[in-house]
Structures are given as C-alpha cells and as structure tokens.
Amino acid sequence: MEAVVFVFSLLDCCALIFLSVYFIITLSDLECDYINARSCCSKLNKWIIPELIGHTIVTLLMLVSLHWFIFLLNLPVATWNIYRFIMVPSGNMGVFDPTEIHNRGQLKSHMKEAMIKLGFHLLCFFMYLYSMILALIND
Amino acid sequence: MCNFKLSGSLIKISKRSPAQNQMQIPSGYGVYPQNYSAPSGHCFQGPGKMTSLPLDDQRGDYYSGLYTVPTQNVVTPKTTNQQPGAQQIYGRVPPAPHNVGSTPEYFQGAASSASHLYTSASQPYSSPVNHYSGPAMYSANSSAVSQGFPSTCGHYAVSTVSNAVYPSVSYPSLPAGEPYGQQMFTSQNASTVRPVRDNSFSSQNTALSHPSPLPPPPSQQYHQQQSLSGYSTPSWSASGPPSTQDNLVRNHTGSLTPANNNPTNTGMQYGEYVNNQASSAPTPLSSTSDDEEEEEEDEEAGIDSSSTTSSASPLPNSYDALEGGGYPDMLSSSASSPAPDPAPEPDPIPAPVPTAPQPSKVAKPFGYGYPTLQPGYQNTAAPLHSGGQPCSPAYSGFQQYAQQYPGMNQLSSSLGGLSLQSSVQPESLRPVNLTQERNILPVTPILAPIPNLNLDLKKLNCSPDSFRCTLTNIPQTQALLTKAKLPLGLLLHPFRDLTQLPVITSNTIVRCRSCRTYINPFVSFIDQRRWKCNLCYRVNDVPEEFMYNPLTRSYGEPHKRPEVQNSTVEFIASSDYMLRPPQPAVYLFVLDVSHNAVEAGYLTILCQSLLENLDKLPGDSRTRIGFVTFDSTIHFYNLQEGLSQPQMLIVSDIDDVFLPTPDSLLVNLHESKELIKDLLNALPNMFTNTRETHSALGPALQAAFKLMSPTGGRVSVFQTQLPSLGAGLLQSREDPNQRSSTKVVQHLGPATDFYKKLALDCSGQQTAVDLFLLSSQYSDLSSLACMSKYSAGCIYYYPSFHSTHNPSQAEKLQKELKRYLTRKIGFEAVMRIRCTKGLSMHTFHGNFFVRSTDLLSLANINPDAGFAVQLSIEESLTDTSLVCFQTALLYTSSKGERRIRVHTLCLPVVSSLADVYAGVDVQAAICLLANMAVDRSISTSLSDARDALVNAVVDSLSAYSSTVSNLQHSVLIAPSSLKLFPLYVLALLKQKAFRTGTSTRLDDRVYAMCQIKCQPLVHLMKMIHPNLYRIDRLIDEGAIHVNDRVVPQPPLQKLSAEKLTREGAFLMDCGCVFYIWVGKSCDNNFIEDVLGCPNFASIPQKMTHLPELDTLSSERTRSFITWLRDSRPLSPVLHVVKDESPAKTEFFQHLIEDRTEAAFSYYEFLLHIQQQICK
C-alpha cells in the first residue's frame, strides 16, 4: 500500500518538476524577448491550476497516509500556491498578468519562485524515491 | 434627416460592390496582420544591415536631392538676431517665456553666478565653484587628479584661478620646475577658450555683470579689468580651436574685417572651418604641438578635446553659413554662446538670495572616475581636459581666501555644522531650516535644475521639458542610491509639440551595432571614421554617407552633423523600419446614445466640434473615419460614397457581434465628406425620443475592435453610464457613505479583466481606445479606464456633465475636443528607452503596454502623453563619469511617414552623498513618487500609499541630516534642492487621488490617479501644486514682452488663506482650470475695470469669461491670462469665484498649506515629519 502511495507521489512529482522547468523556460524566453508578454502569460496561466491541484493532491495524500514529515514539508508550498491563486486581483488576467509582468521586478520574482519550486520538487522527488524503495523492500 | 433605413436586425445592402470600396487598402493589409502583430518587436530595432549609398557617381545629385529636406528643416536660425539666442539656434525649444527677450535677466544670472563665486570662495570647499563657473574646469580638476598633479602652492593657485574666472592670460605664474609644466601650459591655453566667452559677455554688459554682492579681492579685480580691455581678442578665440594660439590669432584678424563690412563672406567662414578641421583632425600627428608634447596616454584625450570643442562652438556659424546669414549674426552668436550658460539656471530672475542656484558642483567624483575611464568614453568628457588645469590649484587658492577673508564668510554661520566629507557647498545644498523658513516657495516659477556638465554638453543636452531625471547627479552605486533614500527615475514627454525640431532624412540612420543606440551628441569620435557608443562603449564605423554634412555642405565632418549637434532629432525612417506599409489615419467614434446620453446632450457638442474640425483632423488623402453608436443594440453607419444618405445598420445580437458590411463602415474622409456631414448634422436629433436606458459598451467595443483590426488607428469612446449589457457589464461598487472614510478606500482596481484583454487585443492591432466618460453617477472608471491604459489611449472624465445645466463642463468638453481632434497624432508607435550599461529600468508608468523589458508598445502617441520610468543601478558606475539615456519613439505620422524621434539626456555620475542631494530635481521626484503611490494604492491600499509618501520625505530628510549635514536633529533641515519636497508631498496627500477624510467620489479619485499616470510633468505639477497670483494690482514692473504684448509677472503666492486678503483678487492656475477669487471688499476699480460689473454684489455666480474692456488693468489681466493659456496645449476654463459663493470650496481645497478637518497644515506636517525623524 505504502509503495503505491509513493509511486503515485513520484509520478506526480515528476510532472511538477516538468512544469517548473516549463515555467522557467517560458519566463526566460520572455526575459530574452523571444515571446511577448501576452502569449507568455496566457501559456503560464493555463498551468497554474493543474500545478495547484497536483501539489495539493500529494500533500493531502501524505496527510492521509500519515507521513507527517513529508506533509509538513509540503504544506508551506501548497499554502503558497493556494494563497497566490486566491489573491489575484479581480482585474488581472491570472497569476501572471502581461501588463504587470515587466513592472516592479515581477518577472524576476516569478523566475525566482519557479527556481525554488524546482529545487523543492527535486528534493521531494528523491525523498519519494527513497521512501518508495524502502517501502518496496519492506514489502 | 431622420429617414434612415431602420431594420430589425440587419440590412444587407446589395448596392455595395466590394471592388470600388475603400476596403481595398484594408484587404491589402489583410495579408500582414499576423506578421505584423507578432514580430513587431523587431520593427523598432530595424534590421542590422545598413545600406550605404554609393557616393561616387551621384554625389551632386545626392547632395542636392537627398538633403533638401534636412536642410530646410534643420536650419532654424530665426532668432539669430537675438542676443541670447544660441539655444534657439540649435533648433531646440524656444526658451521659457521668462527668458524671452529679457536679456538683462541673463546678465543678472551671470552676475549672480559671479557673485556666487565669491560667496562660496569663502567656504573651505571651493571646488564646486569651479565646476559651475566653467565646466571646462571641472575636467581640469579631474585630469589633474588622474595624473597625480601635485597640489600646488596657494599663491600660484590664486593667480590661475582668477585667470580662469576672468581670463586674462597669465601663464607666467607657472612654476618653472613643474613636472607637468608643459601640459599645464596647454590646458591653460585652452582654458582661455571657455572663460573668454564669459568674458566677452560680461564686458558687453559691464554694468550688469559686475555688481556682485561682495567686492572681489584686489588681484581679481585687476584681472577683471585686464580682461575687459582685452575683450575682443579672446572673444574670437571662442569659436576657434582651443590649442593653437596662432590659429586663433589668424582667425581673429582675418575674420574681423568681414565682420564689419561683408555680411555674407562665406569664404572667410570656410577658412575657419578649415582651421577647425585641422585642429580636430583625428590623427595624432595633426594635433597641435602642445598635444604632441603631452604624454602618450593623454594623446587621445587631447585630440578629442579639440575635436569636440570645435564641434560644439562653431555650430551656430555653420547654420548661419547655410542660411547665408551675415557675419554680424555670427558674431552675435559666437558672442552670445555663453548665454545658455546662465540662461538655463533655475532662477534667472534675481532671487532674494544672491547665490546662483546652479545645481551640483562636484569635484571629486570626476577626478576620481577619470583615470579608469575607457579610452573612448573619456573623449566625450575630454573637452573638459582642455578646460584648464587651474582648477585644482583653484581649490587651494580659494581655501586661502577663505582664511584670508573671514569676513567674506557670509554663509559660514549656517554652514558651521557641515561635515568635511561634503566637499561641495553649492546653492542647492544650502541647508534650509524648514520649520523656520516662512516663505519656502520662491516667487518665480521653479525651473528644472541643470545637470552639472561642462558647457558644451550642457548646451547639447536634452530640454528638461522632454526629458528629466529625478536626480541630475546619478549616484555611482546602488548602495549610494539606497543611502540617499530618493527615487531614481526618468520623466518623459517624448511627443511634445516642438516649435523647432531638426528632421533628418538619410539613407542610413547611424546606430550602434550592438545596442542599437542612435548616434547622439554624447558619443565620441575616436577618429574620423569611427565613433564610440556612449551607452555600451562599442566602437562603430562611421558610414560613408555620414561623412558629408548637409548643413555646411562639407565633407569629413561627422561630428558636425545635426544628429551629433542636437539631442532631440527626428529621423525619417526607411522601409527597414516598417513591417507593413504605413497605415492611414483611421478614426472611429463609438458613441453612447442611450437615454442617459441623450439627456446629457453631449452629442450636440461632439457633432458640432467634429463638423468644425473635420478638415483639421490630422491625416492625408487616405484618412478614414467611421461611426458606431450603441444603446442596448449596436448601430453602424454605412457612409459609402455614392449613397444619397447615410444608412444605419442595427445589430441586436450583442452576444456575438459581427460587422454587417465590413468594408463601407470606415470610409474615406474626403470621398464621403458630404455623407459624414449629413450624419453629424442628424445624429444629435436621431435619438431624442429614445427610451433605451441600457448600455452595451462591451459589445460595441468588440465591434470597434473588429472594425479597426485590419488597419489600426484611433477609437474614441463616449460613454455616459455604467455598461449594463453584454460582455464587460459592470456593477456599481461605490458605497457613497464611504466617500469620506479615512480608513479603507476599496475598488480602486478594475472589477473585470474584460477591458484589459480588449485593450491588449487592440494594442496588438495598433488600435488605441480613448475614453470620454461623461457621467453624472458612478460609472466605474477604474474598470473602464483599463481600455485606454493598456492600449495607449487617453482618458477624459467630465463628472456631472450636462450640456445646459453645467455649462462649464460643456465648455471644457468643447475645448478639449478641439484640442483632441486637431492635435498631432502618431500611429503604430513603439518607444524604446535605453540607458548606459549598469543602469536598468524596472517599472514603467503611463498608458501603454510593456511588450518587452525596454519596449513600450504605443498604438497611438499624442503630444499630451507623459511617461515615467523607475531606474535601478545594477552595476557600479565607477568607471564612467557620464551616463546617458536615450528614448527613441518610432511612429507613423498622420501623413503616412515613418519617423523616429530621438531624445538623449546626459547626466554626470557622482560618488558622494552630498552631490546626490545637490542634484535632486524635486519636481521630477514628486511626479515619480506620485506615480509610484498610484501603483501602491491599487496593488495594496491607499493608506499604504499615503504612508509611503510620508516616509519618502522622512527617510530622505533624515538620511540627509544624518549623513551630509551634522546639525542637530532637533531642527528640520533640508538641502535647498529638497526644500520644497515636504510641501509637494503634502500637496500630494491633499490631492484628490490620495486624500482621505474629505468626501471624494470614487470616480474622481480614480480619474486623478489616471491623470497622475499619464500627464507630463509640467501639467502634473500644476495639478499637484497650483500657482496662485494676486492680480488686482498688476504692474508692469518686471513684465515681459511677448509678441508686442506686455505680460505682467506677478509673484507666486503660497497656497494659504493667509495670503488671501479681502481687498484683493487672486488667480489660481490649476493647469486645466483657472479660478479667479474675488474678495468681498475688493477694490471696486478692479471689479469695474476687469470684471465689468459695477460692484461686488453684481458679479454673477457663474462667470467664465473676462470681458474685453478697454482699460489698462483689464488689458494687463487679460494678457497675463492669455499668456498663461498659451503656455499649455489645452486652454483651461476660467471660473470667477466670489468670496461668498458656494463654489469657493472648489477654490479653497487647493490651498494646501492650510489646515483642513482631515489633514495637516503645512507647519503641522513639518512637525509631524520632525517627530518621525526623531523617533
């Protein structure tokens, strides 16, 4: 049972890693002026909800399967994702707004955020991998 | 004329045959749109290749043909006969009205500068003086440092200093054993160039320039006299090359004769060019003997110094030569070349304090940064080199003076506490005790500080009206900037109406190959064939075509081309700068015709204005125009040429809007003029009996977007209520009970992203949406404004508009419409702002869409749009002494020409905090802060923004008092440059946008915020801090003459009720509105002579015009008001406010220094700040 939980988490985590990489690539494309702000933001905004759902599922799964440490590790990031999604002003086009992304260093902070998430997901990945192997051996 | 064909949903008109339709052009365009929207980033950049014109076979042709345009346009020496006209000769803006024709003021400026010299001489830090008296000298200072020039003895120094100031040449004082003696000689030699001009100046106006408040020391007086006698000789050398005395003399003697006899002796002028060229020739060998004896490393600098000098000073001559102007003109221009020096001083009219308010005088940083300069860059600053070693000695010399003449120490008492690290004590750093200074506001309008550059660069620098920086001395590092706690940013007004603008047509627009910077006056020519970019320091080749100068019709003088002589130029771009053929001018009017709109009656005014200005709409033969009206349905008008009358087509399907006939709704203005006129005549009466109260604005906008997307252009939306149907419908969000709340102001941001998305779509299709909101109730401007904000449109708001009940609003609409319809317009524009490596832009303010990090996409650009940019310092600027900013605005003119308007601003870099404070441009800083505060109040909250504004004052003043001035904290001290900062911030806090506690309607507040975001600085300052004048006793003293009219210049009054007397009448200039407040017991003569009423009681409640009476006081008042009106594009509405009338609250709310129920008075505010600092 535990092995199944971790296999699922591992797959989910892989998806999140890919998503983070995609965010980083798209944002750096914008930074280098390869795509315009409008299309960049609409591309990224599409993936905000999948990312949020994916991460919340893992977090809840950890809670359900009583892996407290991993749950607590995931909790801040999940909270941040939800907070960010809720706090979008009504006039904005999503978490990424093309009219504001070049202002007040937003691009940089988005980039930083994506990097941190990538790091976090990588860490989680190895943790899940280790736990999965452990669980498989125990079985 | 009401017999339009009306139909239930849609009429397809079969008569229409697409082939003969106007839409041929759009269909042609149809190919492009996709291409166009996506890669338009490149369109600005232009392709990398530059086509150079083959010169060999068609040179004659090429000269006459290609350059006819530029020569006509560039040459603008209309004002050469004016003494201080040098500025105008350069094709810049005409000087501020204050300066026009008032030569004495200039001289006064000069005089006061001289006086300042002595005053500051008394201080231990005299180096600033040098800077300011001659930019030439500041470099001297630096060069001295860079070469380890030994600091010399006082005695010797004194004589050199006086030399510099009153340039009677006295080399003999050079110590013989001086290791750099030879070089010393050179620079001294050169130093005569600059001061001499000063001299020629002062000697012409001896009486005025000499009276300085403090008697000069005897030795200097002596020099002064000497220089006077020797006036003629050095004055000529001004235009000659600096280092060759022989040349100068020859020049002088040779040219003197024609000066008197032969007004058009071009031969002589060419002679001079030859000389110049010789000295400026690029090879080291051809540099003068002095240069040759210099050390190797200095060679480059020396050469360039001569080349730059020569490029700067003979320019007026070259213009004259072209125009065929006479020698006397030339004389005057060369003689008056120093004029711009005193002229742009912040305070040309004698101020109470007899010190020259030159901004920052920096000594150390320049010298400091110099040795590490990259060689090419050094060159730009190199004319300074020629400027004269004496400076460094001057330092010690003045120090001696300070000791010798302690009595002169006029300011010493107030300066007592200054720390030693501030090596500078210019006027702008004079500490002001804010709580004790009662009259903080100067009596004359505040002008922009002039960056502390050398004279040549100063003359070339961009006009502060187009381009301003909040800090005219850029701090070297981000750490220094953070320490100063001042905002760093640029304020731009790029498309300002200019009276004189050099327009350049050439095949190759010379740009840096790596950073794409346009060539500008601040680049350096390494030799004749190569130039060094001043932004990225890349060395570029000078293209063949650039070697020819169309102004002088000579070859081989790239540094004299108009591009290099003017910091504001306009290029006519080639097809490389287009992604599609230039679009025609296309105007679409989207009009609300619901019951509410008809009731307000704006249609009459609009149609009337349009009818009057139909021929004045900017455009060419391709201009197209269309109309869409909407209530709960959308009405299109078929105006196809050939119809007997306009046809109305109604689309009632607002959920999926479509165009009934795509190609006859936007029609050629000239071909269908009669139909358009018919429609405009009929429109006001067509909907008189409508009962439709709904407004489907969103669908109408979608239709407009569909209509415009093939071409792009301008959509003008007139809306009178909340949109209530279809996409983009809005709900009322305002709670009237919260209007005067002191806590939270909600709903400053948009309610929906519909308008933002629409604006971005429009922007992508080069369409701008301008919004006219004429509503009596809440209409959610914060949501509606988005359609203009992001599509580079403009927003007009007329609260409680009614054509008959509210005549002043109606008049305002009429005037603004006239301006709106006839002003210049640029289509499919992009603006790119570049700055020197190390600086970066991080936030932009204004109406546009930021397409990439430094590229603003502007579907339309209009002359009333202003922008602001926040900067940060990414890398330390230690290896450079100057930074430059360049904005390039690429647009399609209404005549279908692709043009690029380029502005370049150059500023010095400083390393000490004192210098940063000395260079603050407080007005620019306030405007930038206002922009930032708007952002803050929308993203977080209004109270947060208010706190941030107060903190900006607290932080900067406490940083100043703790680092620069060591005075005690118990007094509130500000440097003179920042003395108005608290006042302006208080004014901002009492502005409609940011005030709390006073009842403010949400739409009014949001509109004020929109205005802060998109108004240029001049207009914004009037809005923030209006000007108050007393006008019942206008006198001719100090009056200026404009077009044969005497314009009195009453002093500015501070905005406080204590200045209002019941016996007086006051004029308040708030930018877009004038108030005349008449006191209860105002002199009856004034009421009779100016207002045309027998007594106070009979003045009508709503008076908006002054009668044209044939009395002296009426004439004076009217000429003053006309003069104020002429200085701005939009003619403001005048309100006469009686002391007792209810309208006086409007007037009194602008008296920002007074206490209100909800806000501090100025004095209380100062105490509050002081408290905060002490905390």
From TrEMBL, chain A:
It is found in: Membrane. The keyword Membrane applies. It holds the Pfam family Cornichon. One of its GO terms (molecular function) is CCR5 chemokine receptor binding. Its main location: membrane. One of its GO terms (cellular component) is endoplasmic reticulum-Golgi intermediate compartment. The chain crosses the membrane at residues 6-27, 48-71, 118-137. Keywords: Membrane, Transmembrane, Transmembrane helix. It is a multi-pass membrane protein. SMART domains: Cornichon (SM01398). GO terms for biological process: endoplasmic reticulum to Golgi vesicle-mediated transport. Belongs to the cornichon family. This is Cornichon family member 4. It comes from Myotis lucifugus. The lineage of its organism: Eukaryota, Metazoa, Chordata, Craniata, Vertebrata. The gene is CNIH4.
